[in-house]
Amino acid sequence: MRVLHSSDWHLGKKLEGYSRIKEQEKFIENLVKIADGESVDIVLIAGDIYDVPSPPVEAEKLFFKGVKALSNNGKRPVVIISGNHDNPEKLGASNPLSSEYGIIVFTTPFEKKETGRYGNFEITKSTRGGIEIEIEKNSEKEKVYIYALPYPGEKALGETFSGTQDEEQISYSKRIGEILTNGILECQREIPKVIMTHIFMTGSICSDNERPIELGGSLAVNLNDMPEVDYIALGHIHKPMVYKDKRAVYSGSPIEYRVSENRYKKKVFIADIKGSLNTEIRGIEIDNYKPIKKYIVSSVEEGIEKSKELLGVDEWIYLEINTHRALKNNEVREIKKNSNIIEIIPNIKLNDDLAEPLENYNEENIDLAFNGFYKKKYNIEPSKEIIKIFQRLVGEVE
Length: 398
Ligand SMILES: [Mn+2]
Fold this sequence. Notes:
The protein has helices at 21-37, 57-71, 88-92, 95-98, 154-157, 165-185, 300-309, 329-335, 366-378, 384-393, and strands at residues 2-6, 14-15, 18-19, 42-45, 78-81, 103-106, 116-118, 121-127, 130-137, 140-149, 193-198, 200-202, 220-222, 231-235, 241-243, 248-250, 267-273, 279-285, 292-297, 316-323, 341-348. It has 398 residues and is α/β, with parallel strands linked by helices. It has 2 domains: 2-285, Purple Acid Phosphatase, chain A, domain 2 (4-Layer Sandwich); 292-393.
């Protein structure tokens, strides 16, 4: 049985206010091609479908269109869980319609699904949080048990964890391990078993030497507390990661959502599940439709040059400018003629030692004093707007 695993789509997510929907559309198109081209039997999407609880309409449209295409009109089961970014009720609202297409959305922990026909396949058995799916492949029937645990935060679980930070951490990890182990034990048949959940997991990675970044304050689950199953489809971390020993995989987000994510390739994963813990896992690299780049230049002039040089280059650009003075409005406008420059980061090295304390001046010449102070500090005359703001602050104009 061949499973396609993706997560953390964050549909509707913006970058510095700029929409990413076009890139997200391209990804979904690509994903459908992969599902068809690889003759995938089941698609798993492990949470954070949307970026915010009330996503924009274009994001919802893309989701509906995308999962319908992935389901191949009900021939291919698509199983979805909610992540910490999703509004569970909103995500599940389409269930009565989507189940006709074989799209199954788990929104809260321990949800029990109805057995029966979904699209062109059947849920032959269901438990609290688990489903046994029967599909037909090459005129033979195959079964898989999927235990789905949507984002198990304290609120969703209806449980709180207390004690010292370490104790809290340990009891959370043990509890999630217990829920997953019990969930898997509910299926007593000798069929492949799959877990999908949206958690922050810690543990060693065998495919490379990198370890997941520690997220301050987040409750994490230790890999050792996870049960042995044929595949664990994880969501939450944006970097693809494979925990070989436990056949646990973070597919990661499909497109770069921050400049820090541009150091590695984005992926989706294919798992060939043969049963008895024999699973072949491989990542498929996703095209980078519009990379996020950061350029650092050493003067305002060089910044303007760079902006011209990058005109028409399809990248999201952060331009960091090392300078001894503030940028003038016309310079900002010049740079922003390149609409791909989404943020200018002026790194101003101020002449702090030159600045005299403002209290040396009296009220009569305070404008003059401000002018002098600003000039010394930023090496340019303050603009009219800046003077106006200053005057408003000292209460001279309304
Ligand atoms: Mn998440």
